[in-house]
Write a structure and sequence with these properties.
Length: 271
């Protein structure tokens, strides 16, 4: 039996296991990969409520990346929530120093805006993210709010998404996926811009689901596909289908504060 492709997640830890490295590990495993993690932060939270966040020391982040790239045949990686300037610099420097021949695909999910709309990075950290991490990316996967920060103008509809994705792809000289989870309507639509042009990916929207970790899951799924040798467009399409099913087949529990939802990473695929 062949060994699975090794996929590295460089991201924060979510105590509720719905997002961050926990969601990434579930996704990578569900899609047949073997997941590694370099932890950039530790977050105490439940869906929709962050209690406490601690960023990891830059030295610890860099050493995790060093030992994992040296010790495993990492086929692809994703970068999620990084933190502040020190953490961004540590990730970028370690990746450049230890990735070897530079052939590994790298998906960068620029986590800058919370689901609530609050900014997670200061402007100078966003600038460093653009300067140090984006040039390393095979694919960038901002949501509409994050794309608006990068584009410096609102992204409110499909026309905005298409123009923004093309402009950012040209600006950062990489492939670009703008995720349209905040679009209105009954279809969840994303746009992928590559050297071959623009491609829309759509799925039915599942109403009434309030969870987190969709962006983490999506980017981890794409990285897994790339590490397994899928072309970019196929990796993105499979990732879109995976995260859509994770939402549709979500878990739900009734708790004292109310109903709580979580993505289902071990979803069933209809025959």
């Amino acid at each position: 039996m062949p060994s699975p492709s090794v996929i590295l997640s460089i991201a924060g830890s979510d105590s509720s296991a719905g997002a961050g490295i926990q969601a990434d590990l579930k996704t990578i495993s569900a899609l047949g990969g073997y997941g590694l993690t370099a932890v950039t932060s530790v977050v105490s939270e439940t869906p929709g409520a962050v209690s406490m966040l601690r960023l990891m020391d830059a030295e610890v982040i860099a050493d995790q990346i060093r030992v994992l790239l040296a010790g495993f045949p990492v086929a692809a990686a994703k970068i999620g929530m990084v933190g502040g300037r020190e953490q961004i610099e540590a990730v970028a420097s370690a990746w450049v120093a230890h990735q070897g021949d530079g052939a590994r695909p790298l998906v960068v999910d620029p986590v800058m805006v919370a689901t609530s709309g609050g900014r997670l990075l200061e402007d100078d950290a966003v600038t460093l993210l653009c300067e140090r991490l984006f040039p390393l990316a095979t694919l960038l996967t901002p949501n509409m709010d994050e794309a608006a920060v990068l584009w410096q103008r609102p992204v409110k509809n499909r026309a905005d998404m298409a123009a923004c994705a093309q402009d950012l792809a040209d600006r950062f000289q990489t492939h670009l996926l703008v995720k349209g989870g905040h679009l209105t309507g009954d279809r969840a639509a994303d746009i992928l811009v590559t050297a071959d042009g623009a491609q829309w990916l759509e799925a039915p929207r599942t109403p009434g689901v309030h969870t987190h970790g969709t962006g983490c899951t999506y980017s981890a799924a794409i990285a897994t596909g790339l590490g397994q040798g899928l072309p970019l467009s196929e990796a993105v399409a499979r990732g879109k289908a995976f995260v859509s099913r994770a939402i549709d087949q979500h878990h739900a529990w009734t708790t004292a504060p109310g109903e709580i939802h979580a993505l289902n990473h071990l979803q069933q695929i209809a025959p």
